[in-house]
């Protein structure tokens, strides 16, 4: 009598490892944007040869960099449960302050940059204080700041220069050293990488470390998830949100400084409308509009998708109007994917 023994080929330990790895990936907010970036990269790499050329890579990295700097700061603020509609116009305001002091008042560029930084931080602090003091939605408070800054930019620039543009920064003292910090280029083979790309990478890394490795990062998630609960456990909610608004203003200063020192001129209406692109990049990167969930690395990837798509459309010789259709579809898809990932992540954590 023979006995047949059936040996299972299944590996429970291996299945558990795979499940554990999958669960770790699912709870990462940036996983959707990473997959989207791969798809966009492969698509434009296939349909156009210029996309992967050194010049092409440098071009779409340059396009994404200033958007990415702002998207990272906006992502932190959105995770904290707030919005800043003055972020776009802030890039012009800080550039104008620097340019007016350096060109019209004859200041050295470095003190002019310092004053414009203090101006940005003051506006950011005021936005945060008003939101927390009045209880008004940040959408309303920063919309008021947006309109005030836009009017201030146009009015002051026209009053001083009789135009809506300031140029001539290259002739100011201190331009050479300041330009090296904010507007220099680095040659990597045949590619010329702008300083803004370096700023983007460094600020993304710093913001990512702060968000996931520090107590302040825990405070950001706490005030964005539930302000009342955060206060109940001792989180300094007012200080946290004011710092977040100041961080967004600081990012606006960095972008404004890169622009004015690179192009040596600034328009008073520059940056208007870009605040929505910053928010879209953050949402594509995994941030929820309701706060308490998101990733700064994802926001940086969202900006990269913007840069690749915008320049890929140009390289493919398509009508640039298609880019707005791409943004609309991308935003809707990102909201649906983010909600699905958040629900799955909540089930995994249980």
Automatic annotation (TrEMBL):
A GO term for molecular function = transmembrane transporter activity
The answer, when asked if Cell inner membrane is one of the entry's keywords, is: yes
GO cellular component terms, semicolon-separated: plasma membrane
Q: Does the keyword Magnesium apply?
A: no
Taxonomically, the superkingdom here is Bacteria
Q: Name one Pfam family in it.
A: BPD_transp_2
Q: Which residues cross the membrane?
A: 31-48, 60-78, 85-103, 109-132, 139-160, 193-212, 219-237, 243-264, 276-309, 321-341
Sorted keywords for this record are: Cell inner membrane, Cell membrane, Membrane, Sugar transport, Transmembrane, Transmembrane helix, Transport
| InterPro entries cross-referenced by the UniProt entry | ABC_transp_permease
Q: Where in the cell is it found?
A: Cell membrane
Bilayer topology reads: Multi-pass membrane protein
- Name the principal localization, coarsely classed: membrane
Looking up PANTHER family in the UniProt record yields: ABC TRANSPORTER PERMEASE PROTEIN YPHD-RELATED-RELATED, XYLOSE TRANSPORT SYSTEM PERMEASE PROTEIN XYLH
Stated role: Part of the binding-protein-dependent transport system for D-xylose. Probably responsible for the translocation of the substrate across the membrane.
Q: What is this protein called?
A: Xylose transport system permease protein XylH
